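User: For a reading group we're discussing how well predicted structures match intuition. Take Alpha/beta hydrolase. Before you show the prediction, I'll give you the sequence so everyone sees exactly what went in.
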Amino acid sequence: MSGELNITAGGAVSVDSEAFRAVGVRLESVAEQLSRAGELVGRARHTLVQLAESSRFRLSEIWACAARLQQLAVEATDDATGTQIMADVFELVELRAEQQALAVNQPRAAFALQPRIEALLQAYPQTENMATTLVAGWSTDRFEGLFEQPIDQLLLASGVTYGGLLPIMLSAVISDKVVSATSKGSLPFGASLQGEAPPVHVSESSRKLVDGGPRTLTEALERIPKEDAQIRIEKRTYADGSADFIAYLDGTRSFLSGTEQPWDMGSNWDMYVDQERAASYEATMKALEMAGAEPGDRVDFVAYSQAGMIADHAAMSGPYETKMVVSVGNPVQPSLGADQTLVELRHTDDPVGTALSAGGSFGGTGASDSITITREAAHGLVESSFHAHLFDKYLETAQMADASGDVRIEALQKTLADRDTAVTVEQVDYVAKRP
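Assistant: Thanks. Here is the predicted 3D structure of Alpha/beta hydrolase, as structure tokens, for the group to look at:
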């Protein structure tokens, strides 16, 4: 990879398995039509041979055409078979990831997937080995560049720069230059934050009307607040009077713990290690309520770093209907539903967004149009151990993705444009503090 942009459907799977299977079905149809065409040309030659004037026709060339059509039919059949097998491999990887995510809190649902898994394995015995190889390749690539930096220097840098709690969190998943997929970095289906809501004060800092919503990934990231406000909420009101919301959330603001800043290392610890309600999460919920969002309203999220955990928990167990989460340098991997689109930006050498999340899910998660965008961003710069986690580097990645011409990015841009039909878009910034 080495800095190259990689865009996939998530984890080890490059494309949606059902879409890939549909290609195989179409190839089968093409093979059948080619075969029929070859037969028709062959019959035409046979008919011409019976004519007295047969010498007038180039019968050898007609025969060669018929043979070529039949050969193309065979090749298309082989391609169709190979495509269907790879679709089965992709589906097997996806099902096993989903089964793993369900097993913790919804074991019956996890068990219900087993018959389909067994059917895939019985249909083509090599599916097992192919799926294993696919995941193994992803397991290697997902941390490209992370261990070019000596781990002891990485932990030392995190202790000096990011406060005492982060090296402890990193040490929990980094050992002997191996990142292990711990339960801390993966949110299974049914996961939710526990405990009582901590006290936090939220106040409005600015309010204005803006000319529409974001139409590209870059524009969405650029709306994440970077001044005093940690939360920016856009209320989009449509001609029929209905409204929905987008919450833009920044990452950690203080690398100490127990400060008046809710976006601190203490909130990181609360959500990541203890999986308890954090002050930053509560502040976001209060801000949404102040912006007019009611339970059941659509609220999408664009979130960086710590805020990725806020967005994930809100999407999985919050009071709102979330259809899209744009997650940047997220220290955890959510398990989203089939009707929720997840757009992830992960740098393979990010010690927060990749190491703490164990590289994400090997099978992906969310709707079929979900996208994972990865690249190596720091290129082994020891003097800047957290270079790959910087927001500006992720903004560069978003810009690269928008300019890539990838059909999945173009589909995302179209989705954003199609949604941008609100009569008014009101943008409100909120500042949160612990009392």
